[in-house]
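User: Please fill in residues for this 199-position structure.
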């Protein structure tokens, strides 16, 4: 690496900080960028800058968004009375890809984990309750992971939501125990949503 001029060394160093990228791959990518057109390099640099400048959390569902409200929350074709609760934005993307859900989402930004000191006040439970109270929600499907934290979170939310006039369901079997939603294939996830059961 030290055989390269400082500017290339610097690029290799920065690329190798990305997860899963070793120094060899970083070197290959840096040389690829160097060989490519100036325009391609600028587009890459600009798109990296742009996600940092533009992306924020949707004020309603806490999904990643380029504006105050995400594409799903501002889509009049979506059913606001049907909420799907997930842990992370990537889980929402997984459910969307399954094509089985036409309601709206609520992203908790985590799961309960007493071992790691993550309690209800650290995930967006309060915001979920406000939505259930204010948005005339008829059904909440709990699509948290099927690992210990995800199950604990689903049980906790079902208990809290039992006080409200809302149907609470849990995604069904098919999602393997211990499964992270974003790694579940689309067909399995679609079936799990269609055969959800009352909590
Ligand atoms: Zn949203």
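Assistant: Residues filled in for all 199 positions:
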């Amino acid at each position: 690496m030290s055989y390269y001029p400082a500017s290339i060394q610097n690029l290799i160093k920065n690329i190798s900080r990305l997860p899963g990228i070793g120094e060899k791959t970083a070197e290959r990518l840096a040389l690829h960028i160097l060989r490519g057109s100036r325009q391609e390099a600028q587009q890459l640099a600009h798109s990296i800058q742009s996600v940092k400048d533009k992306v924020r959390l949707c004020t309603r569902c806490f999904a990643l968004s380029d504006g105050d409200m995400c594409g799903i929350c501002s889509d009049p074709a979506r059913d606001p009375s049907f909420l799907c609760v997930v842990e992370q934005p990537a889980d929402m993307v997984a459910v969307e890809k399954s094509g089985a859900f036409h309601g709206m989402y609520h992203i908790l930004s985590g799961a309960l984990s007493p071992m790691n000191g993550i309690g209800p006040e650290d995930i967006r439970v309060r915001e979920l309750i406000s939505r259930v109270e204010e948005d005339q929600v008829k059904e909440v499907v709990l699509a948290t992971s099927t690992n210990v934290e995800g199950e604990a979170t689903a049980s906790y939310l079902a208990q809290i939501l039992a006080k409200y006039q809302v149907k609470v369901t849990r995604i069904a079997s098919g999602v393997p125990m211990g499964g992270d939603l974003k790694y579940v294939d689309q067909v399995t996830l679609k079936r799990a949503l269609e055969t959800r059961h009352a909590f």
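For context: Residues 38-54 form the longest helix (17 residues).
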